[in-house]
User: Fold this.
Amino acid sequence: MKLNYEILLPFKFNACKHHWLFFIEFVRNSDDNQVINLLESWCNNYIDFYTGNLTPERICDELANILKLNNCFNSNDFNNSLKQNNGYKRITISDQSQWILRKSDDPVRYIHLHPSRTGANTVRFKGSTLKTALAVAQLLAETHGELNLDIINKARIKTGLSPVKNVQKSKGLAKCLDYISSYKI
Assistant:
């Protein structure tokens, strides 16, 4: 996945925040401070990542074609269609991933999109879980150690999070570490 991409107008899409392969490339090609700054901007909100193989450009192309077929690609038609659908549209594209489209605050990029949290090829992580998992993966690689409370707390402190008193069976952290380790960051 290339870090330079061109998002088709009129879409507004943060690939680093919503496209897993793009995010992985960003992490691989950035220094620790850049990654930490990015993650801090996401706070502790939930983040939905698209995990399929379509590029951001291809996703936008498919969505544009569907909107054009349904006569709701131009700004007025798009906004009118949102009024009929509680302020958003959910669209399924070729790989069965689902995308949520909302009105953006940008008059040129008036369609804000992100993956549906319940669709195919989507994974959801809490921002703090993602921060912890990335730092844990880095510490484990540096120390060749095993996952334990000490490593988790070092990772949390490194990313500005509070340490924890015990390790709970964290499905979120384990899942996030599995995703990260499968891409060998």
In short: The chain has a mean pLDDT of 88.
